Amino acid sequence: MATISQLMHTDKKQHSEDTYDALERLTKTLEDFALNVSSMNSSALVQPNLAVQHIKLSNWTPEVQFYAQTGLSEKFTPEGIGLGADAANMTSHSGRPVDLMLTIKLQNNSQKDWGNKNLSIGVVLYENDRFFNSKRFNSQLDTKRRVVSASLTDKSLLDNVEFAIRPKSFRADYNYSEALNWISIVGCSLSIVGLFLTTVYQIKTRKLRGANSTTLLVNICLCMTTYYLLFIFGINNPVQSSKASVSEQNVIPPSDMQQKVDQGPCTAITALLQYFLLATFAWNIMYAAHVFFLIRNALNGPPQGFRTIAMTAGWGLPAVIVGISLATTYSFKDPSGYRQEEFCWLASLDKVGTFDPKRPMLWGFLLPLAVMLCFNTALLVYFSRTICCANPNLKSSRTTPLKKKILSSFSLAVVLGLSWVIGYFVLITHDKTLYIILSVIFCLCNTTQGVQIFFLFTLKSFLKTRAQYNLDSKTESRGEP
Q1: Which of 66, 167, 212, 242 has the greatest number of CB atoms lying within 10 Å of its CB?
Q2: Domains 2-165 and 179-238+256-391+398-467 share a fold
Q3: How far is the C-alpha of 417 from the C-alpha of 414, rounded, in Å?
Q4: What is the rounded distance in angstroms from the CA atom of residue 5 to the CA atom of residue 469?
């Protein structure tokens, strides 16, 4: 018994056809052994991974019950296994609920002609299904599947078998910080208001800065506002598969992975979130290119047709990436290849919970975003270097204060979305404390990005214009030229 119990933890990959034949003979031997084991101490028949129980009925009884309870140890113990005809006393000594209750009911008409019949019943309980290889069932999840077998010396006396198991939730356990959730909701809500005011202000004062600058910043605000709204109202999947459907047919399922057809708007929300996030950064790149041309070609500015190129790249490039993601990973019968179940966002993990580079989270978002962030970071360095290093060939009586230079660089970093770089450090960190700190910083910076844009590009400009207006009014009232 101890040897067989140890064999139940061998690696399935080491099994061959001969091994499967040997295991089949072994399980049949255990069934026969369970029917003829009455003379052995029952406690010796319970090993950590295997339990064998036997009962001999000299008198008729309506039913025989077998129970199994492992508790926290997840191992079989003699006090947690029992087989008997006295249903009233068939409870675990620990007082905890049992994992399995098997009730073997006998024929009622067998009581009359029982006579000198001696019925033996043997039960074998396996801790896992390592001895049972199926050609029809494909295991994809790392879940435990126990196997129980019951044998009778006279099968004609059997009426039916009933069993009850203690259910467990096999769904993934999603634990997320409540504080980060509220930071996200409040930050996104304030950003929506800030972006709306920025859009209105940019359109109303477009003559002061030119068509290109207004178009770029307005499109950035529109994309950010849309994905903030989608995040607040659509990130949680409204169709939750909390209750698994129970099949009334006694058939072997092809797999332990439950697949459901696509339901609800979650896939559409995922695609829209992916599109508008990528569109935001595509417009960021166009804004960075615009700044680059203004620095290099101070007099001429961006080349002809820049607005057309910006519109095509800003709205078209994200559509191509989203289209490829959907075409290569989405299936109506199994939408989990494209999106997650709990949240309406791109899939990143495989069926056993490890990061899968084939999922669209990597090449459909993280890699394109990394390329865009590298470009924007390079532009920020170029911009900061340009405004901080004076050109010796140019003479000017007016010098730019250091505070204004830093603010200009910070404003550009905000509108280019460079705070998303923190998210990559969140992905690669393994220290728990550092992970929490970076997560909070990332959440604060990105959910309030719309608020930052409002302060730097709307409120600051409005206050400056207002101050200049008051100064001109005072000068005019004194009669100064």
Answers
A1: 66
A2: no
A3: 5
A4: 88
Domain 179-238+256-391+398-467 - what CATH class?
mainly alpha
CB atoms within 10 A of CB 305: 9
pLDDT given at position 171: 56
Which neighbouring-strand residues pair with 160? Answer: 105
Measured at the CA of 116, the angle between CA 115 and CA 119, to 5 degrees, comes to 105
CB 89 within 8 A of CB 112: no
Considering the domain delimited by 2-165, tell me its CATH architecture: Sandwich (2.60)
Rounded to whole angstroms, what are the CA distances from 276 to 313, 372, 388, 447, 452?
A: 13, 14, 34, 15, 19
What residues does 346 pair with on adjacent strands? 339
Taking a C-beta distance cutoff of 8 angstroms, is the pair 346, 363 a contact? no
pLDDT of the residue at 173: 53
Within its chain, how far is the Cα of 395 from the centroid?
Answer: 58
CA distance 415 to 291: 12
The pLDDT score that the predictor gives to residue 98 is 83
Q: What is the crossing angle of helices 211-234 and 306-329, to 10°?
A: 20
Domain limits, the chain: 2-165, 179-238+256-391+398-467
Specify the pLDDT at position 199. Answer: 94
Cβ 330 vs Cβ 267: under 8 Å: yes
Other Cβ atoms closer than 10 A to 378: 12
Here the tokens at position 171 are 């769904």
Q: How far apart are CA 190 and CA 350, in angstroms?
A: 35
Residue 47: which of 70, 29, 63 has the closest Cα?
70
Positions in the chain whose pLDDT score sits under 50:
88, 242, 391-397, 480-481
DSSP conformation class of 82: E
How many CA atoms within 13 Å lie on the side-chain side of 316? 7
Q: What is the pLDDT of residue 474?
A: 56
d(CA 30, CA 149): 10
Q: Which two structure tokens, joined as six digits, stand for 376?
A: 């924007």
**Per-residue confidence (pLDDT) for residue 230, from 0 to 100:** 95
Nearest to 159 by CA among 192, 195, 111: 111
C-alpha pair distances (Å), 295 with each of 379, 382, 393, 429, 462: 11, 10, 16, 37, 24
Q: How many Cβ atoms sit within 10 Å of the Cβ of residue 65?
A: 21
pTM of the model: 0.69
Residue-level pLDDT at 394: 41
> 3-class DSSP state for residue 76?
coil
